[in-house]
Amino acid sequence: MKVLPFVVAAAAVLLSACASTGNPADSANAGNAAIVSGNGASTAGGGGSSLNPAQPLPQVDAAGAEAAAYAGVNGKSVFFDFDQSAIKDEYKGVVEAHAAYLGKYKGHVLVQGNTDVRGSREYNLALGQRRAESVKQSLEVLGVKPDQVEAVSFGMEKPQASGNTDGDHAQNRRADFVYQ
């Protein structure tokens, strides 16, 4: 029976350690990034609360890390100039992000080349294939294994924009990444 008061006291200490102070200053500084030093201390831009060095930082499991990495590349396409298959400098970062994802998580991606509606069906299928192959080659140069990437063309068959303006055409001149 002498153990019971000790267990109750220990539970009370543990519960109080988890309680929030509700300090409005902490709420105001919640948007500031915390910088953790080597000893576990934390500083925030506006003098917010510090981390408890005895409490470990939350860990992300491998599936969570992969999901976060996928979210960073999902929906990112490479867009091309009219009648071109060369990757523009502004989209090289997109290709590099996909290469890093494929290098780390060993997935498989289908690169789909697309065109706008101008030109014949045959010409657009060939141009879409050149665009997909251009992206595939860039991924391989960045270290992605050739068996991880497949390049196909949809030509003008899968438009993102259905209009006929220059902006619509620009949205349709792209290579999409579809992970399998």
Task: Tell me the layout of helices and strands.
Blueprint: H1 3-18, H2 24-28, E1 34-36, E2 42-44, H3 62-73, E3 78-79, H4 92-105, E4 109-114, H5 121-141, E5 149-155, H6 166-172, E6 174-179
Parallel strand pairs: 4-5
Antiparallel strand pairs: 1-2, 3-6, 4-6
Organism: Vogesella aquatica
Function: Part of the Tol-Pal system, which plays a role in outer membrane invagination during cell division and is important for maintaining outer membrane integrity.
Subcellular location: Cell outer membrane
CATH topology type of the largest domain: 60s Ribosomal Protein L30, Chain: A
* Structural classification: alpha+beta
At the first level of CATH, the class of the largest domain is Alpha Beta
Gyration radius (Cα, Å) is 26 Å
In the CATH hierarchy, the architecture of the largest domain is: 2-Layer Sandwich
The major pleated sheet works out as:
4 strands, mixed
The largest beta-sheet arranges its strands as 3-6-4-5
Number of domains: 2
Overall body shape: elongated
Strand proportion: 15-25%
Number of strands: 6
* Fraction of residues in helix: 40-55%
Helix segment tally: 6
Q: What are the secondary-structure elements, in order, as H or E?
A: HHEEHEHEHEHE
Average per-residue pLDDT, rounded, comes to: 78
Show unreliable segments. 3-50
* N/C terminus separation: 61 Å
Considering the protein shown, what is the CATH homologous superfamily of the largest domain?
OmpA-like domain
Signal peptide: 1-19
Membrane topology: Lipid-anchor
Keywords: Cell cycle, Cell division, Cell outer membrane, Lipoprotein, Membrane, Palmitate, Signal
Pfam families: OmpA
